[in-house]
Amino acid sequence: MIVTTKDLFQHAYGKYAIGAYNINNLEQTVGLFRGNLGKKGSNDDPIDGNVSAPFILQLSRGARGYSDKRMLESLIRAADEVFPDAIFAVHLDHGTEEACYDCIESGFYSSVMIDASHYEFEKNVEITKRVVDRAHTEGIVVEAELGQLGGVEEDIVGSVKLTDPDQAAEFIEKTGVDSLAIAIGTSHGAFKFSGTQGLHYDVLEKIQKVVPAKFPLVMHGSSSVPKDWVDRINNAGGKLKDASGVDEKQYLPAAKMGVTKINIDTDGRLVWCAIHREHFRDQPEDFDLRPPGKTFMQAYAEYIIHKNTMLGSAGQLEGARKSLPGKSGCGCACSR
Question: Dihedrals φ, ψ of 329, to 5°?
């Protein structure tokens, strides 16, 4: 069932964070759904324990342009039928104003992110408010960003600029945005931190105090870049040096302070890369894409379960389901 992020945030706020996972292809889609339903293997055998979770499925502009955007949308519609117990939002990640309007008009997305964070404050407000006004007329919720993360996202090279708490409160009031991505020390890509640097909880605490009560905050660039997956890639011919990410133990403390959505993209790519490098290293005579694909889907499902456990969302699916408002059953893929 496709719902809005707003529906999910109301149940999660202050208790756990919802994983927002980017996908680009069939194998990621299947692995993501299986993992969030606590399933493994081609027979969808359940994993012991209650680990099923609500989640946010993210499509970036790059993913939508990788093939015709309708291809990915069709995969998601099919997955919604194959895995009817899933509860998730379909979200445009780091959209331009034009991309947001395209997704709003498609009638498929339940949530869009307008990223005008690279502009000055007033222009960011102006662009975000236009998108919010358009989206809200269609029952679609909007995420925006204030402050800047380091690293590269799509065609934007970010320079680190932590979110100003006072500006955050003003931004929300002026735009009417439904959730806000803040810069508190994370960055995009596989090279986030050096040494023992971590999240700026002091900045997060100040932001939570000045924004409206129970207002959902979002953390981008939050992959943990696990050393074991990096080592597997490098042992199979890769050259990822000094890759590092967000300590997973920092997820739940941030969730308790109002971070209800945590974006994870790089980690999924690392799992994909390691599985495929190892397969063709160990079986160089093979040219069939399906065996490594099957291995990846299972490995990714298990990794999603691990991530949800660290986020605190594992085991929250039924609670989230019970908290949902009644749906109109309009027949489209959204929650309207």
Answer: 60, 45
Q: What angle do CA 161, 165, 169 make, to 5 degrees?
A: 125
Beta bridge partners of 144: 114, 180
Helix, strand, coil share (%) of the chain residues, nearest 5: 45, 20, 40
Average pLDDT, integer, range 311-324: 96
Beta-bridged to residue 150, according to DSSP, are: 187
- E-only strand ranges, 140-258: 141-146, 151-153, 156-158, 179-182, 217-219
Extract the tokens encoding 278.
């190892």
**CA distance to 211, 242, 324, per residue, from 196 (Å):** 29, 13, 40
Please state the length of the chain.
336
Measuring CA to CA, which residue among 121, 194, 113 is closest to residue 154?
113
Closest-CA residue to 183 (of 221, 230, 130): 221
Q: Which two tokens stand for residue 4?
A: 């809005």
Question: How do residues 262-295 score in pLDDT, each as one tens digit?
Answer: 999 999 999 999 999 999 999 999 999 999 999 9
11-29 burial, b for 16+ CB within 10 Å, e for fewer? bbbeebbbbbbbbbbebbb
Angular region, 199: left φ>0, alpha ψ -120 to 50, beta rest: beta
Strand pairing report for 217-219 and 179-182: parallel
Contact, 224 vs 190, CB < 8 A?
A: no
> In this model, does residue 330 exceed pLDDT 80?
no
Known catalytic residues? 93
List, for residues 101-132, the tens digit of each pLDDT value. Answer: 999 999 999 999 999 998 999 999 999 999 99
